[in-house]
């Protein structure tokens, strides 16, 4: 416990409750998910870069999305695994806590911006296919990605700065497996109500703002697909959007539960579950969503596997 008005210079992560045996089971499970996440998303990045059939805007954005998924999960999971492996609480310095929270939020915001761009890309591909190559040219795609990354990292500077301006004098124990903003605000002796409201408004603008073009795009996409006379044509058109649509539902759903709420200091159990969905489950599912439901990616993977097998035989 800290002094009455002294601020914590380090934080102790309580992590998950339960026995050491349970922690070892959780470690094995999360380590497996993390390993598959790294391998799967790395494979996607590699085949997008190497295979010429995937040199199109959709897969260019997918490569950056996979890189963001690796970043998001690598910011959180290694620290969580270390805490599960060692007995007792895990200690993080104030600097490490600031860095972790900033990178986590910045990568997540970049991902939202990129998902919105991918929805617009699918809209142009389905609703305006004759002008697709003109509208979504390489220069446009590069600028979209640059703006997404810059916006993501710049937009989270003030929220993180404002969070760590408070005096954390109640305790230095965080009931979480990473430096969660809501749990940090619980430790403050200051009045955090106004800041929490501003953070809520910013979350609404960022999440709903990036979700709006997705909703509008898919409204037009579904309307166009339903007008296609043949069933095979409708199925083919929908298959180009199914992976992105599935990922949007999972990604936005979990983030809406975690961040778009007026009271940031939510129950620790609620925050842990939502955080696990964002930092562990969604990055893990990403490679499966975009490979099992995408014929071009599956074909590129099969050809890559054949090439590797031939090299090994020689």
Automatic annotation (TrEMBL):
This protein's membrane topology, according to the annotation, is: Multi-pass membrane protein
User: Per the annotation, which location comes first and is thus the protein's main one?
Assistant: membrane
* Stretches that traverse the bilayer: 25-47, 59-81, 101-120, 141-161, 197-221, 241-260, 272-292
**Entry-linked Pfam families:** 7tm_4
Q: Name the UniProt key words of this record, in alphabetical order.
A: Cell membrane, G-protein coupled receptor, Membrane, Olfaction, Receptor, Sensory transduction, Transducer, Transmembrane, Transmembrane helix
Residue ranges occupied by any G-protein coupled receptors family 1 profile domain in the UniProt entry? 40-290
Cell compartment(s), UniProt:
Cell membrane
Q: What does this protein do?
A: Putative odorant or sperm cell receptor.
Q: What is the similarity comment for this entry?
A: Belongs to the G-protein coupled receptor 1 family.
Q: What is this protein called?
A: Olfactory receptor
**Species, as recorded:** Equus przewalskii
């Amino acid at each position: 416990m800290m002094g009455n008005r002294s601020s914590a210079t380090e934080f102790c992560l309580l992590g998950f409750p339960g026995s050491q045996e349970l922690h070892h089971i959780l470690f094995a499970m999360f380590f497996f998910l993390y390993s598959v996440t790294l391998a799967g998303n790395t494979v996607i990045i590699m085949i997008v870069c190497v295979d010429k059939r995937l040199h199109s805007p959709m897969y260019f954005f997918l490569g950056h999305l996979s890189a963001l998924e690796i970043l998001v999960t690598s910011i959180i999971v290694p620290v969580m695994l270390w805490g599960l492996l060692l007995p007792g609480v895990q200690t993080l310095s104030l600097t490490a806590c600031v860095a972790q929270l900033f990178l986590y939020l910045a990568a997540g915001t970049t991902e939202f911006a990129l998902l919105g761009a991918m929805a617009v890309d699918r809209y142009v591909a389905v609703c305006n296919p004759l002008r697709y190559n003109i509208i979504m040219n390489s220069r446009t795609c590069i600028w979209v990605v640059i703006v997404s990354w810059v916006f993501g990292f710049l937009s989270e500077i003030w929220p993180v700065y404002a969070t760590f301006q408070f005096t954390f004098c109640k305790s230095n124990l965080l009931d979480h497996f990473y430096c969660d903003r809501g749990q940090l605000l619980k430790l403050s002796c200051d009045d955090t109500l106004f800041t929490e409201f501003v953070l809520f408004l910013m979350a609404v603008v960022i999440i709903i703002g990036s979700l709006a073009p997705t909703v509008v795009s898919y409204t037009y996409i579904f309307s166009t697909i339903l007008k296609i006379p043949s069933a095979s044509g409708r199925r083919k058109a929908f298959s180009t959007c199914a992976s992105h649509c599935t990922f949007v539902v999972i990604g936005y759903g979990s983030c809406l539960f975690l961040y778009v709420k007026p009271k940031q200091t939510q129950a620790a159990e609620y925050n842990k579950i939502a955080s696990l969905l964002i930092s562990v489950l969604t990055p893990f599912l990403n490679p499966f969503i975009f490979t099992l439901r995408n014929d071009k990616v599956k074909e590129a993977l099969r050809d890559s596997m054949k090439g590797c097998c031939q090299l090994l035989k020689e």
